[in-house]
């Protein structure tokens, strides 16, 4: 599990930390970065026994740069940081919050987005050579002219039947959805039935093909984050089950946010910010009922 921590989000002392679960307990957190500017949004990727940790660096989000480090010993030691796309000044390439996926044809597709003072937009970065080089997709089309807010960011991805699907955080009170045939060109972002408070979401594809998404079920941009739930879709995000509660606090100042979710086929593993002080870990068994 990786996260960023410091005196306050965006302060120069914010660094990336890691803890590893050995099956019984989480080990002592280890600081992985040492910079003089804030670090943000670590994302882990395991591929052929190698772990890559992507993260953002920069004082302002539009000025973010993406770096990565690698480990081949389950996080005991790490390589020196390397910029993902050399000399990039676009606001960050590669995964922005949620995990990349490895496709059936062995490409890495990383969910990405950019934020400016006036607009938010999402895209993906694609690597066909194991993460050495990256190709930026087209922007996922979003109708800014009729939007209530800045747009969409922080997509979460899955593959099914040779197509690629994205759910997106939005400023419109709903989670948005986009679809692609090739990962390069994406359909217009459309609202789903799931509420979204303009806070991060994540999803994972289960062994039976269902999509399991974790989110705050509040339909108001910059709304409360005191409830976190999950819902399941059996038709690639067109329709969802009723939200099921993970945690709630009646104090609207409480915060359960920015979830990450993965599965090993037997269990679903969820982490999320807990009162902006610690990280909560939840383990759910997958049943056939």
Round the Cα radius of gyration to an integer and report it.
18 Å
How big a fraction of the residues is strand? over 45%
Span from first to last CA? 30 Å
Structural class determined from secondary elements: mainly beta
Q: What do we call the CATH topology of the largest domain?
A: Neuraminidase
Tally of discrete structural domains: 2
CATH class of the largest domain: Mainly Beta
- Helix tally equals 0
The averaged pLDDT comes out at 97
Low-confidence stretches: none
For the secondary structure, the number of strands is 22
Q: Can you tell me the CATH architecture of the largest domain?
A: 6 Propeller
In short:
With 289 residues, this protein is mostly beta strands. It has no helices and 22 strands. It has two domains: 1-93; 97-289, 6 Propeller (Neuraminidase), CATH 2.120.10.
Give short descriptive properties of this protein.
four-stranded antiparallel beta sheet; Neuraminidase; 2 domains; single chain; globular; 22 strands; 289 residues; mainly beta
Write up this protein.
With 289 residues, this protein is mostly beta strands. Strand 4 (39-47) and strand 5 form a beta hairpin. The mean pLDDT is 97. The chain contains no helices and 22 strands. It is globular. It folds into 2 domains: 1-93; 97-289, Neuraminidase (6 Propeller).
């Amino acid at each position: 599990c990786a996260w960023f921590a410091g005196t306050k989000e965006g302060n120069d002392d914010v660094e990336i930390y890691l803890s590893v679960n050995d099956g019984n307990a989480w080990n002592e957190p280890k600081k992985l970065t040492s910079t003089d500017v804030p670090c943000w949004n670590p994302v882990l990727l395991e591929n052929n026994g190698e772990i890559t940790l992507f993260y953002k660096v920069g004082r302002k989000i539009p000025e973010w740069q993406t770096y990565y480090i690698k480990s081949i010993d389950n996080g005991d030691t790490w390589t020196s940081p390397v910029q993902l796309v050399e000399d990039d000044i676009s606001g960050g390439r590669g995964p922005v919050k949620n995990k990349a996926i490895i496709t059936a044809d062995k490409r890495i597709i990383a969910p990405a987005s950019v934020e400016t003072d006036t607009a938010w937009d999402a895209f993906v970065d694609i690597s066909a050579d194991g993460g050495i080089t990256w190709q930026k997709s087209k922007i996922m089309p979003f109708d800014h002219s009729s939007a209530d807010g800045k747009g969409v960011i922080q997509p979460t991805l899955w593959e099914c039947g040779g197509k690629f699907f994205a759910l997106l955080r939005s400023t419109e009170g709903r989670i948005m959805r986009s679809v692609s045939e090739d990962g390069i060109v994406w359909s217009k972002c459309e609202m789903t039935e799931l509420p979204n408070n303009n806070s991060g979401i994540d999803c994972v594809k289960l062994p039976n093909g269902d999509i399991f998404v974790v989110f705050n079920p509040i339909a108001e941009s910059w709304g409360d984050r005191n409830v976190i739930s999950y819902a399941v879709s059996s038709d690639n995000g067109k329709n969802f089950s009723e939200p099921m509660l993970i945690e709630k606090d009646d104090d609207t100042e409480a915060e359960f946010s920015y979830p990450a979710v993965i599965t090993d086929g037997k269990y679903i593993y969820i982490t999320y910010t807990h009162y902006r002080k610690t990280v909560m870990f939840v383990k759910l068994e997958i049943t056939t009922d």
